[in-house]
User: Fold this.
Amino acid sequence: MNKRFDQIIVGGGVIGCSIAYQLAKRGYQVLVVEANQIGSEASSAAAGMLGAQAEFTEDSPLFRLAQESRALFQNLSEELQAEAGIDIQYIHKGMLKLAYDQQQYQQLELMAMFQQAMANPAYLLSAEEARKKEPGLSKDVIAALFLPDDGQVSARHITKAFSLAAIHRGAVLHEQERVNNLLVERKTVRGVQTAQAVYYADQVIITTGAFGDELLAPHYTTRPVKGECLALELEQPLFQSTISMAGCYLVPKHGRKVIVGATSIPGQTNKRVSAAGIHHLLTHAQQMMPQLSAAKLDCYWAGVRPATDDGNPYLGQVPGVSGLYTAKGHYRNGILLSPITGHYMADIIENKPVDPLYEENFKLDRQVSHKLEKAGEWR
Ligand SMILES: Cc1cc2nc3c(=O)[nH]c(=O)nc-3n(C[C@H](O)[C@H](O)[C@H](O)COP(=O)(O)OP(=O)(O)OC[C@H]3O[C@@H](n4cnc5c(N)ncnc54)[C@H](O)[C@@H]3O)c2cc1C
Assistant:
């Protein structure tokens, strides 16, 4: 068994698999070590929304990164179909954000103004216009904001597709193998140690999401934010766009399925789904689309989002250990940010110049200028 690689990636979620694919494409010998199965944590729990506009009300480095990443999806879906034989189910039908009162309407107005100032399409719709677009919407909706460019993918499929495309390009994947320790000699990483073996590489990238923090110094760790979701099955398709209100979203998937998400519970890493969580999601779902009360409850699940103090991911070299990198803390947008993270990290690992705005704001030893928004967010 080969034990020496150019890079070892610790964690096979969407982020680790995207980086593995980009590095393998550039001709490197890559090993991905995954403690469970590919995509078994947050990357299979996600609803798959590509909310590069819906998630932002002001300009920021993260907004720019999200825009760049969203723009990669059309080509990526074709590329992954060719490389991995997997349809990532990229759907480009936009997002509709709903207002039920004046205060929510004003928030949509502000978001529309910001998006238009950024030259992004964003349309404020009256209640009638919104219902013309999606006839199943509740009569209580007073207005909506339509963001036509915010699409969606299947989170499970894109993670699997990145991993298979990486393997297709020569990467090696070890599942059911946890990395217990890093091998570090004289402040330089040499490889990783699992229960089964020791593997060697001059570059190691930690992509363990909300887990695996013991491999990094305490000040670069992430905070877990659990999210619960459920899936409904419809007899007939009811709507096309992703629809959201404060506290809940509905994502229409292939096969007449709808993902309803998501709760937000800081500090929890267990994946238990509570009755209160299900109640919250079903109540809000019916407030948006009353006919959903007739849908079949298909399944439910929970996952753990990796959050950082300022809401920005950690992308870059780990200070103090030569050859050690991390890409972690993508919080609510890891699926959206996965393509750009793969390119960006591969550039950093190859020592290529990267956008100084990103470097300054996503490096691990940055100054944290603002704290993440308060808990209780809806996604
Ligand atoms: C309910 C919910 C809804 C979401 N909806 C969206 C959405 O609509 N759009 C969006 O863009 N994002 C969404 N997200 C966020 C997104 O899922 C995450 O940001 C993303 O999946 C993080 O990917 P990751 O690869 O960093 O982490 P993970 O997917 O958690 O992967 C980390 C991997 O590392 C492995 N690992 C950990 N420790 C070790 C170790 N010591 N050795 C080896 N392997 C290890 C784990 O087993 C795991 O497979 C959602 C998240 C949740 C929970």
In short: The radius of gyration is 21 Å. The mean pLDDT is 95. The longest strand covers residues 296-307.
